[in-house]
Amino acid sequence: MKLAFVFPGQGSQSLGMLEAFAELPEVRATFDEASSVLGEDLFALVGQGPEAALHMTVNTQPVMLAADVALYRAWVVRNGPTPDIAAGHSLGEYAALVAAGAIAFPDAVALVRTRAKAMQEAVPEGQGGIAAILGLEVDQVAEACAEAAAGDVVSPANLNAPGQIVIAGHRAAVERAIESCKARGAKRAILLPMSVPSHCALMRPAADVLEASLASLSLTPPMFPVVNNADVASAVDGAAIADALVRQLFMPVRWIETVATLRAASVTHIVECGPGKVLHGMVRRMAPDATCLTLSSGTALIEALDAVRQSEGE
Question: What is the pLDDT of residues 239-297, one digit of tens each?
């Protein structure tokens, strides 16, 4: 048995999502720790809203980091085995690094708040755009973006799964790219209700802010490999980890290759460690030979623990 953990990022949050983990004391304790760092009650925000505030980037990022880390801690407390390898989708990479001991949780909470603010400030409200493109391959989407750019920025941002790509950039360019993708036979090409165009060249100013913040932190070698988004590689020292996190902001999330890397590492079980099942569906499509599990509720946590322990004993 070889175990991989994958950590979801922004987009998996929902109002009331912690109700599924009411019986796990580690969840409240982790949120209390994150709240003390920021001087805000993140637990109340998730439970009571307002929903619009939860979906603001500056709140979503620390909330999702706390949720991912809380569920990993719940796994550890229940003697779940340590992953052999891990990865995180965009923001989820920070949770993976916390789990691997490469960055202290309080430092990560403060860092992702800084990251979120810098991302929001990098592009004025209304000027950025994001769109989901279904039914085209990466090279086709890249060609459509190049055709539509016309001096603006638009490029593939999240390479989530074959035929499932997200593009980002200037809103007008994204809208032009949508039409170019439709002309190439996209099954769907729709603008998403998000204003921050992550993982494209417009995020370079935010990357500079993040780099300055990372310079003041102590990052250490991870206890297990964490496949990063920028290079689809596992950094082995603090400087390399920080560099990959900086470049992640303006480079695409190469999730297709990440899952291929996990498969090449001969993993037999892949556990999504976070609320929801966003990564589970993508991973199951790309790794049909692996047992794919979630920690999407307290019940799911127990089921995942049982499945992994049973395989350990075989």
Answer: 999 999 999 999 999 999 999 999 999 999 999 999 989 999 999 999 999 999 999 99
- Asked about 199 being catalytic, the answer comes back as yes
Task: Check: CB of residue 211 under 8 Å from CB of residue 217.
Answer: no
**Across residues 183-210, what is the average pLDDT?**
94
> 126 CB contacts (<8 Å, ≥6 apart)?
171, 195
Q: What is the mean pLDDT of the chain?
A: 95
Residue in 12, 90, 180, 234 annotated catalytic:
90
- Per the structure block, which two tokens stand in for 84? 């052999």
Catalytic option among 199, 213, 234, 297: 199
Active site annotation includes 266: no
The CA R_g of the chain, rounded to the nearest whole Å, is: 19
User: Which one, of 278, 271, 281, 266, lies nearest residue 302 by Cα?
Assistant: 271
Helix or strand or coil: residue 166? strand
What is the reported pTM? 0.95
Neighbours of 125 (CB within 10 A): 9
Q: Which residues, other chains included, contact 35 with Cβ-Cβ below 8 Å and sequence gap of 6+?
A: 41, 42, 43
| Whether residue 81 has pLDDT greater than 70 | yes
